[in-house]
């Protein structure tokens, strides 16, 4: 059989479901769409960011949703010299655990610092938001964090522009 | 004198087999990889599939890229008529735990546990990202190396380890692997040479990373007199426990492992002296965390477990990862079960009397299983 006659069966791995993200993750994603970062207060007084529906240490239900950041402190970071095709930035960057101001846990995100020499544990970083019209309620509504004082960190102001669709719909 | 077992029914690891660990198994599919391993694990003790009353396996469909791949894998055993069988989408160490629980119930006297992981057909870094929180973590596509690097830097920043410690762990494990015929990566290189390597994801250099492996392993568990009949010196499971931490790495102190410490306490690690530890620390930076949480770390810190005195008399005669550990071969869903098998092998041979085996899963040592194996079952 010539090569062109080979039978080919496409096999696409897919997750074709709509998911409801609930009152806590939903609040987080909706906040991102609106240009705000929120966490959840735990019974022991902590603030979990990104919020979970339960205290990660005790399993108790969390309470009120509170705004944190948007600036934060780098708790740890890993410098990626060769980003993979699906990773958020196409040039070298850092994955970082960022303790946002007002939070008691750290959030994983990326820091677009240019060079590993421009980043250190303890550094202050701020989010670089996507334009309001492009935000859909997704963790990458924050394109990246950038060192405080670097350009591009101030786009959060006036970020409450509504976009079509719910935050839950954007999480697919 | 062995300490009192934490477990009630005496159940032992009585046979172990593993495939030769390779970077890429092109010739054989998962079933074909498993068949000789399953055949060997039975032949080792002269039994057949008809001698085990339960079968439990560990694997992940995400590597295969299709649902229910573990059902196909059962063809490697060829059970007929049907037999009670189960599967965990986890490392085979957790499949062993399930089988051990069933054996504790007393209805069956022997079980086959097997696992397999063939990483080569896909992009392991991307597959592994899919185990993470689908809303806040997975969309960032953090690869296992980057997540381990976050943990490694936290250790360095906390003053608990240095890059030289990581290199020392890698050098020792891969040198030990020279005597492991199933190892994928084995060599004798100096710490200085390893520290000259480029970073893959800083602060981790090439040597601190586990290899990507295609592999499979199998264990037979047996209870009481059945174990004694099949094995001259059974490796009795005197305690076994597993614990998990939150799925949010940013909500954990990555420099310590409370889940290992709790599992170790429940499994009774500290009840007596330990002369062998087979720990599943895929990244060289993680071994120190594991040993510390097990209570087996020496005074030398994360990299210095080569003969320092630990607590409870542990440390002086402690051998850590004589197999080379996961740095020598890291087949997904299999390297944890292999740690139990490697530890049991050294009980059978008389090289060890009381061993600790550890398995991990998830990012940055999120989930952990601790198993204590003893050559003696007190009162048995």
Helices and strands, with pairings:
The complex is a heterodimer of chains A (172) and B (380).
Chain A: H1 22-33, E1 37-41, E2 47-48, E3 65-68, E4 72-80, E5 93-100, E6 107-111, E7 124-129, E8 142-147
Antiparallel strand pairs in A: 1-2, 1-3, 4-5, 4-7, 5-6, 7-8
Chain B: E1 11-18, H1 30-43, E2 54-58, H2 61-64, H3 69-73, E3 85-88, H4 92-105, E4 110-118, H5 124-129, H6 144-157, H7 163-176, H8 191-195, E5 199-202, E6 204-205, E7 214-223, H9 224-230, E8 235-244, H10 258-267, E9 276-278, H11 287-294, E10 319-320, H12 325-328, H13 335-348, E11 354-361, E12 367-374
Parallel strand pairs in B: 2-3, 2-4, 9-10, 9-11
Antiparallel strand pairs in B: 1-7, 1-8, 4-7, 5-6, 8-12, 11-12
Helix pairs in contact in B: 4-13, 10-11
Q: Biggest β-sheet of chain B, characterized? A: 10 strands, mixed
Strand order of the largest sheet of chain A: 6-5-4-7-8
Number of domains of chain A: 1
Number of strands of chain B: 12
Helix content of chain A: under 10%
Label the overall shape of chain B.
Answer: globular
CATH evolutionary superfamily of chain B: Thiolase/Chalcone synthase
* Series of H and E elements of chain A: HEEEEEEEE
Beta-strand proportion of chain A: 25-35%
Query: What does the average pLDDT of chain B come to?
Result: 92
Q: Evaluate the radius of gyration of chain B.
A: 19 Å
Number of helices of chain B: 13
Give the overall shape of chain A: globular
Main sheet strand line-up of chain B:
3-2-4-7-1-8-12-11-9-10
Radius of gyration of chain A: 19 Å
How far apart are the first and last residues' alpha carbons of chain A, in Å? 42 Å
Helix/strand class of chain A: mainly beta
Counting structural domains of chain B, the number is: 1
- What is the third-level CATH name, the topology of chain B? Peroxisomal Thiolase, Chain A, domain 1
CATH class of chain B: Alpha Beta
